[in-house]
Structure formats: C-alpha cells, structure tokens
Amino acid sequence: MQKKVNKNIVWSEMLFRQLSRLGVNNVVVCPGSRSTPLIFGIESQKKIKTYNLVDERSAGFFALGLSKASNEPVAVITTSGTAVAELYPAIVEAYQQRIPLIICTADRPPELQDCGANQTINQKNIFANHIRYYFESDLPSVRYEKVKKLLTLIKKALKIAVTKDRGPVHINLPFRKPFESDSFTDTISKEDFEKIVSLNVISIQATASGSLSRKLFSEIEKSKKGLIIFNEKNADKKTIASVLKLSTRLNFPIIDDATSGLRFSSQTNSLLCKNATTILRSDNFADMVNPDLIIQFGDAPVSNSLLKFYQRINCNKILVNEFGDIKDPSKSYRKIVSMKTVDFCEAVISKVALKKEIVNSTRKLLRAEILLNEVKSDFLRSCDFSFEGKIINKALSQLPSKTNVFFSNSMPVRDLDTFSPDINNNLNIYTNRGASGIDGITSTALGIAARSKFPTVLIIGDLAFYHDLNGLLASYKYSIPLTILLINNNGGGIFENLPISNYGKLFKKNFITPTNLDFEPFVKGFGGEHTHVKSSDQLIKHLLKSISSRGLNVLEIETDSLQSAKLRKQYASITLKEIEKTINVD
Prior knowledge:
With 586 residues, the chain is α/β, with parallel strands linked by helices.
C-alpha cells in the first residue's frame, strides 16, 4: 500500500522528534515562509512548548534566558536570509557563556544560491567564529539512509551542545517548495514509511570528569598564602557548598565576583570577602596580600581592580572550569584544569591535609572586609536616594529569598559589585557577561522569567532598555511577569567614569548619548504598568508590590550620571584611605 507524503514535513517531523527525545522542551519560533516545514515539525511534538516572536534578535536572547533558567538546550527557528544574521548577537553571548542553543535555520536549495534569488544569502557556517558545531543538512528525503544520517547528526550536535563542548550549535536546513502538508512530493510504501518513523536514538551520556595529578595536590598543600577567586555563573547549592568547604579546609579566603551569586547565598563562611573590588584598589594592600597560589573557578572577574590585581601578582595561578576555557585576560595563569568545580573541590579535600593556621595577610583582608561593610553603610546613608549605587543596594536588601535578579551590563553590574549589601537572602543572580553587550537584556530576562517559578527583577539603564524595547512583546504576548527597575540617567553613565570624560566637546559630541525619551507610553503600549519612583520608601513599596503581581511593571528612577560618577569617585577615595590605615595594624 502506497502513502503520499510531503518529504519536507516528514523530514522536519523527524528532526523535532529527535530534538524532543534529546531533551529540547522549548522552541522559540520566528515566522517566515521558508521555515514553514519546520513549523509543521514542531507542531507534531506535543511535549515541546513554543514561543512565537517576530523579532529574531529578541527571540535569540529570549531563548538564551530560557536556557539559563532551565539549564536545558533550547531551539530557535528562523527563515532564510537576514533573519538568520539577526540571531548573531545572542549566539555570541551563548558561545561565551556556554549556553546550549540549537539554531535551526531554513535555507534556499542549492539552485537558488549565488544567482540573485530573493531572501537568499550565504548561510553556510555563518556563525563560524562563535559556534560549537555546524552541519549542513541534506535536502529533505524519505529514504531511510538519509533520515538516519539526519538523526545521527542531530544526536552529535546535541551531545556537543549539552556535554562535550557545551554551547550553541547551528543546523542549516535547505528546503524546496512545496512546504504545506497537503501538498505531496513523494509516494512511499507504508512499510518503508513505518521504518522511517520508528527510527530511534540513544540518550546523550555525560562526559566523565578528569583527574588531578599528585604534583597539583602537592602545590596546593605547600601553599602558605593561597586565595580562591569564584566567578561561576548560576552555581548550584552543591557547587557553592564545595567551594566553601575547600576554603575552610585550606584556610584560603574567597574573593567572589558579585555576578556569581555566592555573596547572596544562604551558605557562607568567615573567609568570604565580598568587598575585594574596593579593597584591592589599594596597590599597597594588594602587595601585602600577595598570594603564592590563586585558584580561579569559572570566569574572570568583572571588576578592573581585580583584573589588575590578578595581573600584578606573580604567583602560581590555576584556572578551573569544566571545558578548560582560558578565562584570564592577563594570560598569566600556569595551569588549566578541565573539571567541574564540585569534582575538583572534592578531590582536593580528600587529598590535602587540613590547614589550621590563618596567615596574617588573610586576617588583614578579613578585617578590611568588616571595615568596608561599615564604611559602605555610612557612605550610602549620607547619599541622596538618586545615587545609582544606593538604588541597587536598597533594592537588593528588600527582595525576598529565591528572587531572580538580572543585572544589565554597563554601570548596573559594576555598581552591583561595589555597592551590594551584606545579605544572605539566597538571590539568583543573572547577567549576560559573555560578550557583555547591552543588546537583548530585556529579552533574556523575560526568557528567565518564563521558565522560573520565582519572581524576576531586571535592573537596567535607559540605553539598554531602549535597545531592546521590542523584547517587551514577549511579556505582553505570553503574560510573562517581570519587574524592571529602570535607572534613567538619560544616556548611560559608564563613560562619565572613564578618562575620555575629560575631553570636553569631543566627549559630549561622541560619547554622551541622551535619548530624551518618555518610556511610559512604550511600557503601556506593551500592556505594562509604569511608575516614577522618587524615594526609598516608594521604591520599597512598589518593588514589593510589583514582584507579587503577575504582570509587567516598570519602576523608573531618574538619576544624574555626573553626580553618580562624582559619588563613586568620593567612595573610592574614602575607602582607599581607610584601607591604607589597616595595612600596618596587627
């Protein structure tokens, strides 16, 4: 008995059945004609949840947020042409952060390439510099060998994306017309058709952990003045517990990057230093700390003072991350260990003897940490509410446990590192610190909110908010709740803190970027609530109210970038003097 089929549809259905079996539960769809077969393929898989977003750039970042929150691979579908290129910023970020995005792009068939056909560009490995794996699919077929080849390549792509070399992968899929399910292209026997659709796969297996050498254990054991730098994004409880346990075992203080979330965890120890960004601005104090060993978990720190410290100190430096990535801009590391943090910590703890003595430099560092908490509190108490560092400090201190907090790039993430409060309320901290752009911030936060059962707060400046206004459509379309704390200094403030700000007319003409926009109509146009906040009491009131609601709420605070830059410099001056006083005190 013969069966009429559209090979494009069969091909796409098998593709998404395979993706579903391999753990893809969410797909972000950007509509377009050439990707029509892929849409039919997605709709055939009832276990897959789809989000349909018209802006490909926003859709890519939304998928990034979905994957961050779920720790699962997320697929993105686009039509051919420039729609594909719009995904690139999100792919760059996913590549840098090792987020598993499965990019499925529809394409024109070979005969329409390089001949001026409409909506046709060279899509072959278009993301070559920022992709973990690429394959060009054959044209759809209902031959058993061809379908099996497709499923095998998909399995390979998913294994790379999820475990082997974690990050984004790209599958380019050319299609010939017709695309619709009621337009038939082939006739196939029922037996052969059943043989195709019964094709199955083997589940992806996690890669085994590495092992450590006796020499490395010996180096750690012999260290007299060791230091841990922790900047692993979205670290789970087990990972945090293992690092804290290692710190206690070795009596090594921990310098945590605020974007790791460790400083807001309910787990802590007395060796955790949350103010290192400020303390190590002092070269004299850095010279006094002078570790003989640094173990760095995860990414390089955000702060320039920590990066400068890292480069300044000539000691044994060990980078630890699962895939052996070079996360050291100074390139002064001695070793890279390709290992999960938990496995590394457990291995060292089992082999290295307990160090009972705390060295004097560690005592001084921890004493400076206590002092800085007091200085910071006094300084912020003296500042007006509109100081950007105070806004972030106040907001974080009020948020309930388990709240997701997404920090935009530019000044918000830096103020987080310097002015965060001394709290342990178990906040989940998120950032896009892979390529650190201001594009797609709102879309990423909405992706996180869509996959999390906890409230999500985005702290963002006006330029980044303007840059991704289209992203608000996802909240409106899918009723995704999000609280946005919009710090509006009319043009961003990061350049006010750089030497270029001293260049008068050139600076004003080329670096100050005021938009002079009234954001309220935009927010309301996307179905959101907008509130101007002018005091600490109003901030607390509206913040707590908005995170308990189920909608989009934008709390806008107008600030003065020049005044905030001035206050940051004052704080740096005050703290430097206080830290210098402690160096010679025993």
